[in-house]
Design goal:
about 220 residues, mainly beta, about 65% strand, 14 strands, Porin, 8-stranded antiparallel beta barrel
């Protein structure tokens, strides 16, 4: 029995390792992949408002939204992959007042486009899934803003950081199911007027982005 165990255990480990390597980097596969699926953005806003001076107790809330997420991946090695995430359509969010300015209601509407570039590491297959984690940078382009309680609203484009965790479930023919969660750290400056008086705000958006996508390895 000891001889059989000593013989079978290395063979089983070799078979599992070979299976994981085969699923991680199939022979002849391109390093490029494309993933598409729904993405949910939940903003975690914090703002400092100034109207001739600090406005204590005032805050801003950015509404959550859903978009179609697109991700381009490039595998440098079986363990390292760069991922570029964009939204297929502009991200729309409503900015509303909270705290001492809650009575103002909707302050503005913004359309933005985030682009997230991360480097990700995977230790390989853990059973049927391939976990990964990574980090990088995000750039947010502000396409347009609309006026409501605030007029002449302008928001700056912004750079920030990103941290990500996720897991892939390999399927067949180069396809896989990919679920990831990213925390973005974004801060923008807003200028506006209200009743002709200048208003400025430093707003942290810091969205949590959840993406469920189907990936194709080419």
């Amino acid at each position: 029995m000891k001889i059989a165990t000593r013989t079978l255990l290395p063979l089983a480990c070799a078979a599992l390792l070979g299976n994981a390597q085969a699923q991680t980097a199939p022979e002849g596969a391109s390093p490029w992949s494309l993933a598409v699926g729904p993405a949910h953005l939940a903003f975690s806003t914090k703002a400092d408002l100034y109207a001739g001076g600090p406005v204590p107790g005032a805050g801003v809330h950015a509404s959550s939204t859903k978009v179609l997420g697109v991700e381009i991946g490039y595998s440098f090695t079986p363990h390292w992959m760069a991922r570029l995430d964009i939204a297929a359509d502009p991200v729309h969010t409503n900015l509303t007042g909270t705290g001492n300015i809650a009575a103002l209601g909707k302050l503005s509407h913004a359309s933005v486009g985030p682009a997230i570039l991360t480097m990700n590491y995977t230790p390989g297959m853990w059973g049927p899934i391939r976990p990964y984690f990574g980090g990088g940078m995000v750039y947010m382009k502000v396409f347009s803003t609309s006026s409501y309680a605030l007029q002449n609203v302008k928001a700056d484009n912004a750079f920030g950081g990103s941290f990500r965790i996720g897991a892939e479930l390999p399927l067949r023919d180069g396809y896989s199911l990919d679920l990831s969660v990213q925390k973005l750290y974004l801060k923008t400056n807003i200028t506006a007027t209200m009743g002709g008086a200048p208003v400025t705000a430093s707003v942290r958006l810091d969205p949590l982005v959840t993406l469920l996508a189907v990936r194709k390895q080419f």
